[in-house]
């Protein structure tokens, strides 16, 4: 796309939303061209000799070319598909290779929600460059942000902030997928999830299930949790609670009947688990 950048103001309502944008843009640094371009304001412009410290987060996605980034943590190679995660208050500098140049897409943002999301273990300050590959869905999300900030219709900050959250979600998802790419365990977990869903009302022996897949339970449990975010047993319980909520709302079955239908040993255990997960007892939820 053509070079584009826009600096934004965030009102009190935008800041109270929890995540707000300060800047968004795209830039093609051609081979041999000086970098960064001189047209940026003093708060963003930097030289290689001095580097800079920003007062915001930035996600800078490189989709062509390559280069290098340096922080106090070390020196990091950048290639097509790299995302530079820049944090407020952290000295850094980066530049494209003179022979290749690069295409960059960036957003700058801040806020309390941003602080919380960027505390995720994946976003380790010692590793400010993530190699996720050139992903069409990530590029498309940047373009949607650019369209919003170009027009600045009322409420654009709230929509754009949601797209930044989406970007961060993609980064986590891409990193998690790396662990399973090309490995048979991914197909095993998908099959196990299907079996658990199909038998939500049954008692399932997860250790026996692992043996059916010819793998040890500890490995099965670990990889299932890495894949889904929860253990097989917890996954099964969450599905039971979801099904219980549906039955409470759309049927006239008693709490005792629903408890029995979903394979709970006692109504007391079912009621206690339901309240723990939902915050209300089954009777209160139905009312």
Order of helices and strands: EHEEEEEEEHEHHHHHHHHH
- Rounded mean pLDDT score: 93
CATH topology of the largest domain: Jelly Rolls
Structural class: alpha+beta
**Number of spatially distinct domains:** 2
Annotation keywords:
elongated, 9-stranded antiparallel sheet, alpha+beta, single chain, Arc Repressor Mutant, subunit A, 287 residues
What's this model, at a glance?
The chain has 2 domains: 4-178, Jelly Rolls (Sandwich); 184-286, Arc Repressor Mutant, subunit A. It has 11 helices and 9 strands. It has helices at residues 12-16, 112-117, 136-151, 156-178, 184-198, 206-212, 217-228, 232-250, 255-261, 267-278, 282-286; strands at 4-7, 20-29, 52-53, 57-71, 74-79, 82-86, 91-96, 102-110, 129-131.
Description:
The model has no long low-confidence stretch (mean pLDDT 93). Strands 1, 2, 3, 4, 5, 6, 7, 8 and 9 form a 9-stranded antiparallel β-sheet that branches. The protein is 44% helix and 21% strand. The protein has helices at 12-16, 112-117, 136-151, 156-178, 184-198, 206-212, 217-228, 232-250, 255-261, 267-278, 282-286, and strands at residues 4-7, 20-29, 52-53, 57-71, 74-79, 82-86, 91-96, 102-110, 129-131. It is an alpha+beta fold and 287 residues long. The chain has 2 domains: 4-178, Sandwich (Jelly Rolls), CATH 2.60.120; 184-286, Homeodomain-like (Arc Repressor Mutant, subunit A, Orthogonal Bundle). The protein is elongated and about 70 Å long.
